[in-house]
Amino acid sequence: MSLDIARNALLQADHRLTGPGGPFEVTEDLVLGERMPVFRNRPTSLREILASSACFGSRDCFVFGDGSRITFAELPSRVASTAAFLRDVHGVRQGDRVAICAANGPGWLLVLWATTSLGAVLVAMNGWWSEPEIENALDLTSPAVVFADEKRGARLPCSYVDVDKTFGDMIRHAPDAPLPDCPVSEDDPAALIFTSGTTGRPKAACLSHRSLVAFIMMQEYLGVRGSALRGGAAPARPATRLAVFPLFHVSGLAATLTAVHVGATTVWPLGRFDPGMVIDLTVREGINIWGGTVTHIFRLLQHPRVGEVDPKQIASVGIGGSATTPQLVRIIEERFPHLAGTSSSGYGSTESGGLISWTPEAMLAEAPDCVGPVLPTVEVRIADDRGDPVSDGHDGDIWVRSPLLMIGYWNNDEANAEALAPGRWLRTGDYGRLEHGVLFLASRRRDLIIRGGENVYPFEIENRLEEHPDIIEAAVIGVDDDEFGQEVKAVVVLREGSSLDAAGMRSHCATTLASYKVPTRVEIRHTALPRNPTGKVMKQVLAGLDAGTFVDDGNASEKED
């Protein structure tokens, strides 16, 4: 299928769904002082979505790896009791921050829904952070209360509420309480989602109720559009989705929010990701939608017991966190032949609210640099160095605005001035072009590494490496990896006579960096790193060089459960 044919098919589907009278009709509204396109028939808060979900009745909403479950009928009352617990026991009021640093689980989900129902702001802390990273996040957000599980609580510099041990207290505190009735505006803050910082201090992207609802609506829209493009066939039964993304990621947060909105069951394995356990849950619970990072899906498909899953049971396989690799697409289609040609890929970021464009496989096959037609309600501008729009087909900086966009970075005026242009335009930091409404990516954010769905900025790791007295200079690059998408590789120049080895470098990094940031591959060089005339290391040259005199490929570090 040619690029033009694929684009026209998408545009026709968009017109039917978003035009006057369509189920996703687009209109205009004022968003933080700027007029922009929005979906007309939208909820106005996460609490409204929660209250409406009771209509799905006794159907399972959340199923957990230990066999426990929460139905749609039970969810609003359990959230209401948890909200009362936050208010009565911990004094949480509208606008307060409620932090959580824990593995996925039922307590995490209830704290999420209860916090946003109160009009408070969820602080979703990365459960893999080191102690200094956790402390930085707490200093930035000043939460009224902090929830954690025992493992992560040991890293906290403050007292915390054990989210696992108090689960029973939360749901029994006020079992007959109604959902909170405090007024919540669409543009009120709902959640702080952290993005990887370049200086050791992650930035907290503040997403409003409008942002998250718009993301939910976009996910629902993509599902309906995909069905329409396949001939409109309705699924044989309601969706039962695998949920393995961490809830502190926008992908994980969106998974639960969207599922509650559309009445889908989400199945949450507990603890460290275990492909065998996921296969057991897929068979036991009838999971028909697999989703995860490249790493998750690769491990599932390579597991010796994957044959226990009836291929026809799986209706779709979704990849998030980084681009799908061609090899993984081939493996998916070999295991599930009926999914051939259905792969797709989204382009977006936490700051953009998760989605800017969406690319079906037919377009990817024609143009690998294509990231798809811009989605409804999303506006993209290709700008020159002065911020002026460039003409169609010419490269420039990718700017975006939409109702999904973050309000801004929490308590970070300097970062906001750099990221947000007048008119609520987000400077993505990416470079590309528009051709007849289709977006093409020329380069990703400078040097960004995406390892197993986690954003890793080399600058932070380079700083840590160069703090070691034996390291003269260091550069960190991403290298392709079948399992993780990319791995973190450090190229270092040592002082003469140094006996420092790769293990010592990793140990040095691990004292202050999260495990997924620690280089798994190390190259020791005996000549200076290549630099351009302005003194910047030419990483594109490093990436193309053969290995130096000593290369050590360490075992890929496992993320914690």
TrEMBL record:
InterPro entries with a match to the protein in the record = AMP-bd_C, AMP-bd_C_sf, AMP-binding_CS, AMP-dep_synth/lig_dom, ANL_N_sf
Which keywords are on file for this protein? Ligase
**What PROSITE patterns does this protein's entry cite?**
AMP_BINDING
Q: Which residues form the AMP-binding enzyme C-terminal domain?
A: 460-536
Q: Which domain of life is it from?
A: Bacteria
| Pfam families per the UniProt record, alphabetical | AMP-binding (PF00501), AMP-binding_C (PF13193)
GO MF terms here are:
medium-chain fatty acid-CoA ligase activity
Q: Biological process (GO) annotations? A: fatty acid metabolic process
Q: Which family is annotated? A: Belongs to the ATP-dependent AMP-binding enzyme family.
Protein name per UniProt: Acyl--CoA ligase
Organism of provenance: Frankia nepalensis
